[in-house]
Amino acid sequence: MNEKAERLQRIQVTALDEILGETLPVLDDGFVRVIDYMGNDGAVVQAARVSYGAGTKQVSDDRSLIRYLLRNRHTTPFEMCELKLHVRVPMDAWRQWIRHRTASVNETSTRYSIAIDAAQRTPPASWRFQAASNRQGSEGRLDAAAGAELTQQERELQQHARTVYQERLERGVAREQARKDLPLCTYTEAYWKMDLHNLLHFLALRMDSHAQQEIRAYATLIGEQIVARWVPLTWEAFDDYRLGAVGLSRLETAIAAALGGGDRQKALTIARDAGWLKHGKNGLLRNRERDETEAKLTRLNLAIPWRSEPDV
Amino acid sequence: MNEKAERLQRIQVTALDEILGETLPVLDDGFVRVIDYMGNDGAVVQAARVSYGAGTKQVSDDRSLIRYLLRNRHTTPFEMCELKLHVRVPMDAWRQWIRHRTASVNETSTRYSIAIDAAQRTPPASWRFQAASNRQGSEGRLDAAAGAELTQQERELQQHARTVYQERLERGVAREQARKDLPLCTYTEAYWKMDLHNLLHFLALRMDSHAQQEIRAYATLIGEQIVARWVPLTWEAFDDYRLGAVGLSRLETAIAAALGGGDRQKALTIARDAGWLKHGKNGLLRNRERDETEAKLTRLNLAIPWRSEPDV
Amino acid sequence: MNEKAERLQRIQVTALDEILGETLPVLDDGFVRVIDYMGNDGAVVQAARVSYGAGTKQVSDDRSLIRYLLRNRHTTPFEMCELKLHVRVPMDAWRQWIRHRTASVNETSTRYSIAIDAAQRTPPASWRFQAASNRQGSEGRLDAAAGAELTQQERELQQHARTVYQERLERGVAREQARKDLPLCTYTEAYWKMDLHNLLHFLALRMDSHAQQEIRAYATLIGEQIVARWVPLTWEAFDDYRLGAVGLSRLETAIAAALGGGDRQKALTIARDAGWLKHGKNGLLRNRERDETEAKLTRLNLAIPWRSEPDV
Amino acid sequence: MNEKAERLQRIQVTALDEILGETLPVLDDGFVRVIDYMGNDGAVVQAARVSYGAGTKQVSDDRSLIRYLLRNRHTTPFEMCELKLHVRVPMDAWRQWIRHRTASVNETSTRYSIAIDAAQRTPPASWRFQAASNRQGSEGRLDAAAGAELTQQERELQQHARTVYQERLERGVAREQARKDLPLCTYTEAYWKMDLHNLLHFLALRMDSHAQQEIRAYATLIGEQIVARWVPLTWEAFDDYRLGAVGLSRLETAIAAALGGGDRQKALTIARDAGWLKHGKNGLLRNRERDETEAKLTRLNLAIPWRSEPDV
């Protein structure tokens, strides 16, 4: 390897250095700050080339190589980059965040220190309805009057909880016990460090429309304002191959191929054999897998065979 | 390997089968249940013997081999055993628990389901003072009158929080948002699975006297009532080599060796060179490392050289 | 949770118990044996239901739920199952195998024991040519005469290496040093344990047509003969959603949608804007990403727009 | 946290920058090169202070805090630092190295590239005898005449293996298959990245006197020439609390305490109750645990009670 002779310089990313340490606000009182990083797009390429050999250089420019790696899930070169953030997050969003086990984390301890005197607040216009279609999500907003009442209640409850916490501390109760009735949405802070491969996985899950809005706000900021600056070629490939990707199962591929070849009957047969076309009194029985397939066929501009004519 | 010819039977541990699925209570409303396990002491031994070769059998019985492995931190054979628990834990203890990243976890989602209607309650006699000696811990109890007031306050706050949660749900607020002001000590449930090596590490940290009392109650139960039944030889070795162990640093070893050889002056010189014997107006300056050394010397029945005579 | 009252039985999988400990041969002298397991399809479902709540039961049977989980990459419930194998593998295939870092492993140590007296041998008809299209793979076979010569050379080299190893041992050389010139394809043995989620990831990579033939033989056996018996619903879903899946990038989705809607010009414009249609002297310049897209379009029965007419 | 207002600079370690990219030789043809790093001693301290709160600053200087963290196995702050190396290592040492699963690795692929034309060679004076006391290790050297013969044999075998490899390639055999009979000690290269906590664990195991000499040479260089420059306070604490530490089991502590208090009979009773003092025809039966205890008592200058007088 001919790097041996060269005098190495550490990799610097000017675009990221410009926002180093800057407080990027999220939610009403949260933030994300970049503390440090290691590597860049070039470090991904360098690691891939040590694996695949010098010949790689001739056939691929950096951008093509990064796209190739991401497309084919050659993930280890992306592990060569690290990002270290300082974040301030409501504990109930943090409970989701911390499930990503590949991170290194140091969180403020409320055994050692008094809990941060801030809990996430909800403006009157931001109360969300339970989603009807989706058991985990939310959709739409409550009206202004209801929202105002809920916001008032929220303020009173948060004040009540804080008063009790303070009184416990004043009476000498241990911090580790005094905190027990603080609201779940009390803010916490942490240093959080992750490699780029695992960070992209985190972003794919947490920028997704099924993720809870609060953590999605953090993930979107980290992706669009930080990762996009840090590793622009990887970010572009990630956007194309993960965020914008469509995955077809074996069955879906067969249906799409039948439709692509103009054979609607064959597509229907495949769906029928899979048990997707059972009827109840009110038409087709509900089938979550078929619903997802319909969305994909629509995205591919293919007519849904069992919808295109009433009498399947 | 001569097992090839034998008809394999799955490993069963009768002593653990007897409590399979049983609800072992912890705190006021928590529990631990054993759901399944893989392996036993014999599986540890079997894995060690594939590594070290058949000859191991001649020189070591199972107990000696397990002690040897644990003593010398040959940890991989202990990974061959798995324990799967169903637990019910206050979320603030769970926040500590979940930091152990080597577990597999499925926790009840309060996005999908309504939060468990139980928060940990504190009896009047159980309010603990902040530790003076230790910034993170607790020591002693508040008196009965103060405890009764705090318990009454706790009940009111928990009722307030629950009422607000219920009202949000009744107005149609999404579960993922309604939960945000629930108390940190609201109970949650999870399936939690870990291999024996990582479980012992969890127990060493969480059974320790510095661990918070709540999680210590869970860890102690898991260790003494579950692991001790499941892998008795490993548990015995763990008790001897981890729970009951004393670790001496290079410096402490040198001081203890000087004292062991009867050379108190040498011990003092070593401590002085390490900067441990600086005086302020009120005697020796505070030094946390020296404090820990003193405790170890005392445990070894060695006189603390800088304490044994007033004029060091 | 209503399991509390039930008397728990450990999960047993009769179809897997039938082959427990059996030596399933691979390559000329390798094998895979199932030593133990934890969980089954039901354990995946049980873990998912603790997360998503009891309501899940009403809307999904086990098969639909497992398909849903796999399709949407809800991976944690699959971690609740474990498989423990005893394998005998050439060290050069093992070098690829061991890269999967989520396994627990105990490998025979050639520091403690004498190396296994077997190296993988190649029959005359099994020498493979270097792939032309693919820098890492192989394709086609050498002719019989050349194969016979190579096999004879292989035997002599392996004998030479073994003779040197034996002589070193006889002279008293340490086993850890004597082994240093053994062939890479010398067999080794190990206990290898992994959870089902990570096992599926291993299988997806190592059953793939790009994986080296030797490790593919092991992976295929583990998948088709072991996992398929152990967790048949998961295996079926895995086959549909991973092995048989097609992933389309944002760009590919746009091209397929243009073609699906009958707009070949739009598809060409998209490809041209992406830089895929640059010409050299001999037609379209080589472009690996476009090649992969062509294969996918063909699989979907869509005409490749830049191939369908000569003058793009 | 008052860093918010400051303009952050990336952490630089001048002492490490001085050797960045430099080829540090190991063995006859191996090397280690520092490619990049993240963090320093200050980053460890910073992470600890976010956990334990600002108050930490008043009671502890950086050195004391790092010593405290290492002593009490507060490991997460050390994860905030990363080191990335480029290494060239014989594959049989690499087989041990790669067992550390917490690293990120990109190794040269001999499927893509022709194998490095170098295998580790042994000078005549470097052939080691199998250890008598220890089933895995080596001790002493073979005499010059025997060594010269073995070195000559080694050269012939390595040439034979290389010739066969070359011929296979010339006949068009796939690289992935041609390599199968290369010697285990053929050199490979890799990028290898690890956080400081896991790196210290690697060093503790691989700098140990029980580690094989070849990997110990790499570990010692990484520790003494790289880590010592990069994080000098951590290195000093590691040397004191890990490399130089003595761990006493519960039993050993009891024996040492009896001896510390001058009660030899009590020490004997404890040992006898533990089954350590059984006699055979030739005196005390062999007992590995007792042997290790003897070594520790000697290090503490305590007379071994069952050795100090002939008739126990």
- Strand runs of chain A, count: 10
Q: What is the residue-mean pLDDT of chain A, rounded to a whole number?
A: 92
Q: Largest interface, with Cβ-Cβ < 8 Å?
A: C-D, 53 and 52 residues
- How far apart lie the N and C ends of chain A? 64 Å
Order of strands in the sheet with most strands of chain A: 1-2-3-7-4
Give the oligomeric state of the chains in this entry, treating copies of one chain as homo and distinct chains as hetero. Answer: homotetramer
**What is the total domain count of chain A?**
3
The low-confidence runs of chain A, each spanning 5 or more residues with pLDDT under 50, are 1-5
- Share in helix of chain A: 40-55%
Main beta sheet of chain A: strand number and arrangement?
5 strands, antiparallel
Q: Beta fraction of the residues of chain A?
A: 15-25%
What is the CATH topology assignment of the largest domain in chain A? Gyrase A, domain 2
- The Rg value of chain A, from CA coordinates, equals 25 Å
Q: What's the CATH class label of the largest domain in chain A?
A: Alpha Beta
